[in-house]
Write a sequence for this structure.
């Protein structure tokens, strides 16, 4: 790290929950970094690895055969040690010891907050949005979202077969932390009768029981209820449905299954483009930026601005989902 901020060596890390496509983003940072004349260093286990100095130089071959692999070969962690002023100071010291002039961090909001801590101590950073939840406000898309939705969709299609054979209700809990993007879009794509998301307060009688009884009167013989993890618990909801409607119900929690698997075209492509853009930012001396996808374009914005942004699911989108569930 030098005062003039001449970038020669770049660190790259993945932090927080892994997401399919993270390897493609690392690969893009490594290859475009080398293309622009930088040395690129992989930091293992996110900020925890930075704090510990778990750092190794990567070359074009180190990232061969990673594009199609799920997870992150650099590994990831939710670091508690880094989340203290002393932890940040030690990470900054490690950047100095390993001559890292800038760090590209791939992850969610927590990852960007960590990056901002580094930036405030003079380490130039670039953030790349990587999380299956699609809950990074400054970006319309986050790496891993498409693969996770496809995984959930395939699982729900299978659950539909058995729900249909037994004339049951299948209550499926999907990930998303405090956001309902996976739940809503997967519900539209699987033809679910009901979707519950944290962005909208729901009324069990009106939004679940009535919808299901209405469906039964119209001749439906099975029901798919999708619940975002931030909106309720599939086991509780299945029990309540069975008690209120008499329709036999089974809960399924898809859980970490949604975080794995080979990334889809969309995730490989988006991650690759975002990774290149991150290095271009450094090359153009545009420091402390977050790469984002907005209105069909890859852009970059100031990291503090990015962390202040907000986004949510509109009532219109929910209404459309309801029309399709009739
Ligand atoms: O942010 C990604 C995510 O998979 C969320 O959807 C979920 O709430 C959380 O991570 C689970 O975290 P962990 O893997 O630490 O249990």
């Amino acid at each position: 790290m030098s005062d003039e901020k001449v970038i020669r060596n770049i660190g790259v890390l993945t932090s927080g929950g892994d997401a399919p496509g993270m390897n493609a983003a690392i690969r893009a940072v490594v290859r475009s970094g080398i293309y622009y004349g930088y040395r690129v260093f992989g930091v293992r286990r996110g900020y925890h690895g930075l704090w510990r100095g778990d750092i190794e130089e990567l070359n074009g071959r180190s990232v061969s055969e990673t594009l199609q692999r799920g997870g992150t070969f650099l590994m990831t962690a939710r670091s508690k040690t880094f989340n203290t002023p002393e932890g940040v100071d030690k990470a900054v010291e490690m950047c100095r010891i390993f001559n890292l002039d800038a760090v590209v961090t791939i992850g969610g909001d927590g990852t960007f907050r960590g990056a901002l801590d580094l930036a405030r101590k003079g380490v130039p950073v670039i953030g790349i949005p990587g999380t299956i939840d699609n809950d990074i406000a400054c970006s319309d898309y986050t790496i891993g979202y498409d693969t996770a939705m496809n995984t959930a969709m395939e699982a729900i299609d299978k659950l539909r077969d058995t729900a249909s054979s037994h004339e049951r209700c299948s209550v499926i809990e999907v990930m998303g932390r405090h956001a309902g993007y996976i739940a809503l879009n997967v519900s539209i794509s699987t033809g679910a009768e009901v979707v519950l998301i944290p962005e909208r307060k729901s009324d069990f009688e009106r939004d679940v029981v009535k919808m299901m009884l209405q469906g039964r009167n119209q001749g439906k013989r099975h029901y798919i209820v999708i619940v975002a993890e931030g909106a309720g618990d599939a086991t509780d909801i299945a029990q309540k449905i069975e008690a209120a409607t008499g329709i036999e119900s089974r809960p399924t929690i898809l859980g970490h299954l949604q975080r794995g698997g080979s990334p889809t075209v969309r995730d490989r492509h988006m991650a690759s483009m975002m990774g290149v853009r991150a290095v271009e930012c450094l090359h153009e001396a545009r420091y402390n930026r977050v790469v984002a996808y907005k209105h069909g374009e890859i852009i970059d914005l100031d990291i503090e601005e990015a962390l202040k942004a907000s986004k949510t699911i509109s009532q219109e989108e929910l209404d459309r989902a309801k029309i399709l569930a009739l």
